Amino acid sequence: MPDTKDARILRLFIGESDEHEGRPLYEAIVLKAREMGLAGATVLRGPMGFGRSSRLHTSKILRLSEDLPLIIEIVDTAEKIESFVRAAEPMLGSGLVTLEKVEVVRYGHDAGLE
Question: What family is this protein classified in (predicted)?
Fold first, then answer.
């Protein structure tokens, strides 16, 4: 197995209709991660889900399909992720935030996380 690097994966669970300062929240979060020089971010759209309110969000029911669940995944070093969480805190509202230790096996052609 190639050399691995310890890192963290941050997951932010939000709704598609969530906003921050007039723009979609997922966009504001990804742009903030990019501005802070994090290794990368990905937004995943879920076809179905529910959260703290237990309200079902699904693409199968037209009236509920306007607020589908989104997960934003960001991977970087523990220090960079912790700094990002502090900076993004004012944006997050009622979203769920999780953090896990991960091992990065490969990042790009010849680079690892710095």
Answer: Belongs to the UPF0166 family.
Domains of the chain and any CATH numbers: 18-103 (3.30.70.120)
Residue 105 CA to residue 6 CA, distance in Å, equals 9
Report the predicted TM-score, pTM, of the whole model to 2 decimal places: 0.84
DSSP per-residue string spanning 41-52? EEEEE-SEE--T
Query: What Rg do the C-alpha atoms of the chain give, in angstroms?
Result: 15
* Structure tokens given for 53: 């309110």
- The whole-angstrom separation of Cα 51 and Cα 28 is 21
Cα separation of 25 and 30, whole Å? 9
